[in-house]
Amino acid sequence: MLKFTPLLLAILYAVAMYRVSAWRTKKELNDRSTQLMDPKLFPVLDRLAAALEVPQIKVYLYEVDPVNGLASPDGKVYLTRGFYRKFQNGEVTAEELASVIAHELGHVALGHTRRRMIDFSGQNALRAALAMFLSRFLPGVGVWIANTLTTLLAARMSRSDEYEADEYASALMVKAGFGTGPQKSLFAKLEELTGARAGAMPAWLISHPKTPQRIAAIEEHEAKWGLTE
After folding, report:
1. Is 80 left (phi over 0), alpha (psi -120 to 50) or beta?
2. What's the rounded Cα separation, in Å, for the pair 225 and 229?
3. Would you state the pLDDT for residue 81?
4. Are 105 and 169 in contact (CB under 8 A)?
5. Which H or E element spans position 101?
6. Alpha-carbon span 105 to 103, nearest angstrom
7. Which pTM value belongs to this model?
8. Which of 14, 39, 142, 197 makes an SS bond possible with 125, Cβ 3.0 to 4.6 Å?
């Protein structure tokens, strides 16, 4: 029994860290967000709601500058202030913003939001637990192995979820009458909007797939659904 004690302690430590991190994440979102009430966006939100056959879609404005959209484990969809500012400045259309909301709704509908808390809130806990366990058997390199494994696992999980949410968003945008054009046009300008230069990193370490790959996947769905000429 004693030989398993370090592993059990590592697991308990990871669970405790996960719960604390998840609580902090929820509190952060609640404290720094308000419902987005922009009449210019009501028509696209109404069309998404009609396509989903729900009375209303609520979107919350998260008061941070980075351009991003996210969904929380309780099913709420958020746009950052930075992303909303791009819309206000005319750099992003209402339809393109609708594609972001559709993507985040996909994460909720497909159950990604709870699972992704492992990446969003629990990655450090998992890393700490693995490092504690592996260092007993591989002194000096256990921490490095733990860091590498958790980074690869989180990146792979996230990329898979992104492709699935993209497909859901494409289907929803088509059903709502927008088509996939806004989704693809947003991806084409996303790197410039975010200021990211992901191409400098190995593809397998990036939490989101590369833009050309995402657009190609959408076009594959279009062909499968008979939407291309």
Report:
1. beta
2. 11
3. 94
4. yes
5. helix 94-109
6. 5
7. 0.74
8. 14
